[in-house]
Structures are given as C-alpha cells and as structure tokens.
Amino acid sequence: MFWVPQDAVRGGVRKAVLEGWGDLPVRETAVAVRAGDPIFLSPDYRVDPLLSLYVQSHPFIRYTAETKRNYATDINLFLTALWVRGKSWLEATPKDLEDYEDWRRFAVTNPQRIGGAKWDRDLAALASLYSWAKKAGHLTLNPVVMKQVLGRNGEVVTVPAQRAKDARSSNVHWLTPRTWRRWIDVGLRGHTREGVVEPGWVGRLEDRNVAFVRTIVSSGLRLQEAASLLTFEVPKRRLGGGRYYRGKVASEATRSKKQRTYYVSSDAVGDIESYAASSRAWAIRKAQKAGRYDRLPEMRMLIEVTRGLKPKVRWCDQDGVIGEQELDLLTWQERILLFEEGPHGPEPLWLWLNERGLPFLPSSWENVFRTANQRCERILTPPEHLRRDPHQVFAPYATAHSGRHSFALYMLVVLNYLMDQRFGLTPEERRDFRLLYGDPWLMVQNLLGHSSRETTVKHYLAPVADLQLRAMLASTDDADLAEAPMPELDAVFARVARESEGIQDIDSSLVPAEGGAA
Questions:
Q1: Helices 65-84 & 94-101, crossing angle to 10 degrees?
Q2: Pairing outcome for strands 338-342 and 146-150
Q3: Residues 221-235: pLDDT tens digits?
C-alpha cells in the first residue's frame, strides 16, 4: 500500500481527522507515541497498526531523530511502489525489491536516479522494518535477502545481499584554509569579488554564522556536536592563553555515544564570545520583551551544574518539579529546554539562537550553508561560466561536514610540519617521537573521535595518504610561513591541492589551483 508520514498530510485532511480530538496529547502518551515519530497513512488516510508498532519498537526508538526521518522517507517510497502494484507491504517479495532497485538506480525513464550509497540506506531502512516484522511473527518471507560477511574486525555480520557494489563509503570535501576564508567572507559576510561588502548587504545574524563555521573548521566537531553546545560548555579565553582551547563533547551528542575532548582555536572562541555579547544578547532581550519565553509549552530553569567526574544538571520545570540528569546524557531535545535566570528574565542556555531568540535547530544549519554556497556561486563565477562549465570551478562549495574533513587534513599537514621542521627531527628521532606520542594519523584519529585508525585513513585522508609530506614540507621556505596563528601554510596547502584530487583551493584572485577544483 501507499503510505506517507503524518507530517506530509496537509490542509483539510488533517483538520477533519483531528477535529474533536482535544485529548490527543493524552492519548498519544498512553500508547507511547513520541514527538517527532512518523505516523504512516494509506491513501484513504487509514493508519496501519503494524507500522505503528514498528515505530514504537525497540530498534526504531533507539535511532536518532535524523535516522528516523530518513528511514521513514525511504520506507514511504518503497510502499509507494508496492501500492502501484496493488500490494501491501506484508506481501512484498524479493522480486519486488529487485524491480524497485532497478527503477531507483538504473531505469532511464527515472529522472531522479540514485547512487549506490543512497541505495544502501534504502536497504538499511527496509531491512530494519522487515527484520522486525519477521521476528515479531507478522510475516514469513523477508523480501530483503540477507547474507553473512566478515566485518572490519573479523566478526561475522549479517547484511542485505542487494548492497551496492559501487557505493562510495564517504563523500569527502576539503577546503584549504584560504578557501575557507574566502567562502566565509563571500558567503556569510556579503563580500564581493573585490573583497568589499556588497551594497545593500543585510547580514542576518552574520556574527553567529561566522562563529559557528569557524568553530567546526577549527575543531573538527560534527554539525550535531557543535550545534547542541550549551553556553557554559564553550571554553573561555584567558589572558596569555594559547592558540587552542580544550572543551568536552557530551557523549549523547556524538555519533559513537562516547564523550571526547575537542580543541577549538582561540579565534573561534573569540567569535563566539562576540556573538554572545552582541546579536545573541539582542535577540534574547527582544524575546523577553515580547514575552516569547513566557509562552513556551515547556521550560526547565537551571538550578545548578554539579562538578566531578560526572557533572549533573539540576533544574526546576514550570510545574515546580525538580529534575536532574548527567550533563553527558542530555539529548539535544532536552538541551533546548534549559534556561537560566538572567537580569531581565529567562535566557536560553542553548548557544545558537535564531532572530526570535529561540534555539536554532541543528538541521537549520544546512540552510545556512546552502544559502552561502549559492551566494558564492553567484558572486564568484563569471556570468559566461555560470552553470555551463563543470570542469572549471571559481566558487568554493562547502557543507558542515566539509569543516570536519578540512580540519583533519589541516591537522595532518601541521602535525607533520611540527615533527619534521619545527622540531628538526632526523628519521631515527622521528621514529622515537612516534613511539612516544603516536604518529599524526593517530593524533587526528583521537581529535575526530574515530574508533580506529583505519576509519580515519579510509574515510578522510586516503586521497592524501601517499603524499610525501616530509619531503614536500622540507622544501618549503620558512620565510613564507606566517608566525601565527600556527601556521596558515597556504603555500603548502596549494601544493597539496595540486597533487591530490578533491581539495578545493581557490586563492584571493579567484584562480583555481591546477587540479584543485572539486
């Protein structure tokens, strides 16, 4: 049958269905329906009770909000294909799935074909649904044929047999430091090709956006990790402080669900402090005057944050009930609810706010990057090349994850530079240094929070793994290197971009580095 998530239903349908259901929140709580859970409806707007049970099952409720949304979308598309064939999802066969793959990936008549990685995500969503249904006894034949393979660590794992052979394990985007500076200036600060602010430019929360981007680029934090920071989790700059400051990423915000230390540049911390004292404070004051915080359906007023190995956050809700939770275990949805009492009333503890003074959701950052990319393309690409010449790139393209990739590349180059030139190590001394402190790959692995060195090499740094960094750096004239911050190394990164694929290096004169257009 054809099904759609409930939030896709619009207008009169939703109004007619919910009319007279004033106790809907109570009824949803009684059957464990959570905010954000998908509800699948057939074309005649009937709810399938089995799909509703799947949404409430242990496998599904453990997924992140993003995974739930992605899986619901992928399942919906497959159910659409079955509906066209006059089948319910319980009647699907392996042949149906084979035909579906052919349409999704290879059919010439499909204007929106997908690649191997996206198909593998479709399979994962369907495998989750049908494995649950078979285990629960709701069907006898699983249309997703499974097979056993050896995992990365030699263990036996069960995976869909229809996995794509051409799937790309990662989509890596690198930008060199000077390219990031150009992208920020043009995309977020409204600069023109000549480096001046465009007439009429209105930088809506420009300081917030710049602070966020510089934070992820200098720290390697994932979008979710950086987007869910609370105000008191940001390191404070100190007089005489170094180039980097140390902070902690809460385990619940990480993909691995393990707490880790991160390092962020002092410049990025300064940007955050400037944002907090300017547009953030202004947005909060406006929200207080408008009474927005008083109308929030839920708010938790901070009482204290305890110290120790496992700090706890204690709060009081709007009903006067005291609650507490380990800081490390707070989800981003719980973090949004935290406030503190300021001089003029409640103030959010969520660091990044929108213009209304309300928490800026993690998913909303994608729109910031999209808008900045569009502006860079419009401003930096000559009109005669706009949307016509895919082989020559004049404008950088960035995503939130590009900051993480670029951080990894930057740290690899800098750490090799420190080992080879700053410390003047011989090959023998460098071997001893690595035995004592670990090689740059291991250091970058720890900074990124990867579980294995192989993950770092394979997914992030493989295209530059064969570079002879020591020889390349040894030929660099120290006079060309900036003293601080440590160091810009534009000449070195330009050389890396020329010798490697996939690295965007566009200098201030907007001439793409040879071989460096991505």
A1: 100
A2: unpaired
A3: 999 999 999 999 999
